[in-house]
Write a structure and sequence with these properties.
12-stranded mixed beta sheet, transport, LolA/LolB/LppX, OM_lipoprot_carrier_LolA_Pbac, chaperone
Amino acid sequence: MKKTLIALSLALSLPTLAHAAAVAQLKAFVASTKTLSANFTQTVTGGGRQETASGTLEISRPGKFRWSYGKPYQQLIVGDGKTLWVYDQELAQVTKKSLDAALGSSPAALLAGNNAIERDYSLRETGRQGGLEWLAASPKNKENGFAAIRMGFAANQLRQMELTDSFGNVTRIAFSNLKKNPAIAASQFRFTPPAGVDVMNGD
């Protein structure tokens, strides 16, 4: 009987131990990551449609990042520490806005922002799924633009993100070839609009 009770106690404690891992891994990831580079695949599902895109990202915290979409369209998103630039090559159009306003408590702030995660998000463990430890990050600012955010970790590395917007569209981002604290040239986080493109102020 005693062995049975011990086994039962251990079994009941396992979910708690597993669930505690995701938030701890997020905090360790943020605290130990100054720069980051990775490949990503992004799938957006909603309205009965599904769109997939892929590209590369580079981050220099806080506030500098470069998201480059290569397939099926070319789009570049650059945060230079003060301004957010979005360049759509097909439309020959650039949108710029204040980086502080663009980041705020948005999902990008989790990766490229400062370390004050719990100031802007309520974190909750959601358990293990698909070999990853998952957490839910609920934005405290209701104007965030996303109704729900999930992040999956393994070995203190971010592997996947799931973002659900207020319309029910779900964006899933899977990261691969992730390198933590690589040397990244400062020029990667600078952007000058190409000649002849329309520049729009998005503030």
